[in-house]
Amino acid sequence: EAVRLKYLQTLKQLTESEKIDWQLHKTPTQYTYECTDEPFLRMTRHFLRIRYGNFEATPEIYEEIAAANLSLNPHLSTLNYEEKGGDA
C-alpha cells in the first residue's frame, strides 16, 4: 500500500509541475512516454511489478521509490517544510 500511495503522490506532483497530463484512463506505462526521467521510469517498473506482477514490496524497494520521488522533486522537502510554518 505504501508503494502505491507514493506512486500516486508522484503522479500528482508530476501533474502539478506539468510534466504529465494525468487522466483517469491512462496506464502507468503511458505516463512514462510523457515523463522519461530515469527515476520515474525505475519507480514505474517497481510499481508495476508489485501491483500487477505479484512481487513483494520490501522496505528497500519503498526506500528506492521514495528516493526517486525526491530526485524528481528536489525542492519538495523544502516546500513541505515551509508550508508547515518552518524556516527553510
What do you see in this structure?
- With 88 residues, the protein is mostly helical.
- The chain is 67% helix and 0% strand.
- Helix 1 packs parallel to helix 4 and helix 3 runs antiparallel to helix 4 (59-72).
- The model is unreliable at 76-88 (pLDDT under 50).
Name a few traits of the molecule.
single chain, disordered C terminus, 5 helices, 88 residues, mainly alpha
Largest sheet: none
Low-confidence stretches: 76-88
Number of strands: 0
Please state the average pLDDT score: 85
What does this entry show, briefly?
The chain has five helices and no strands. It is mainly alpha-helical and 88 residues long.
Explain the layout of strands and helices.
Elements lengths: L1 H15 L11 H7 L3 H15 L6 H14 L3 H8 L5
Helix pairs in contact: 1-4, 3-4
